[in-house]
Prior knowledge:
Radius of gyration: 20 Å
Order of helices and strands: HHHHHHHHHHHHH
Shape: globular
Number of strands: 0
Number of helices: 13
Helix content: over 70%
Number of domains: 1
Distance between the termini: 26 Å
Oligomer: single chain
Amino acid sequence: MTALAGYAVWGLSPIFYKLLAFASAAEIVLHRAVWSVPALLIILWMARRVGPAMAVLKDRRALMMLGFTALVIGSNWWLFIFAVNDGRVLEVSLGYFINPLMNVAVGVFIAHERFGRWRAVAVGLAALGVANQIITVGELPLIALVLAGTFTIYGYVRKTIAVDGRIGLFWETAILAVPSFIALMFVETGSGGHFFTGPQAALLLILTGPMTVAPLLLFILGARGVSFATLGLLQFLAPTLQFIVALAYGETFTLGHLVTFVLIWSGLAVFALDLLNSHRKAQRETS
Length: 287
């Protein structure tokens, strides 16, 4: 249930970030990095993980890798918020629908994992969806592809770092927070800042920290008692909710867009069925 709640918060988060339309995407990301640090510190303290978190300072390789993933996830955050505030949540949704299938492609071509027939069909349908968006709608879904790409890179590299998810995110945000805090000093004391324009604006900017941390915490707590196949299916909840939010805000959705999404959804359906079949086969072999 908590894993479900985590994906739900992530899926509905565009509603929250639309409340921050008064600020630029850059200012929001700077606040997001700064305010995530105290939120994560509280979580680490409650989980008694402060000691292991400090131990990461002795692992130079892990810190360098976390520095790289910090830059990747920071760029992902910026593009996500830019797209939301620019009224392009539909493309955000498309990006996170593509992401699982892009993970499959990376697994095959980079990690040299086995590429089953049905997963090939799933990736092929996603590729057709992108091609349709270019030909029929007349635009390359660049935001969707970059969001999916950066999140795929982030997930792949994070798997190579033997660090707890909470601790990893803490150091990523801490790495981003130092230059972000310095930048905010100039932004907020200049004419472009909004933190001191009123208590409502300040509160919303502060809440970007908990909004960043909450989905991860709920996911970590819920993932412990949920099978891998179930988690694989739950990941489609967030982009589905983002899709609904986009339609609710009246974003343009033509027949061409529908064909794109139907192709992507068909690919996801094939992928989900293959995932479930693999899970059932593994259960039979172990029983």
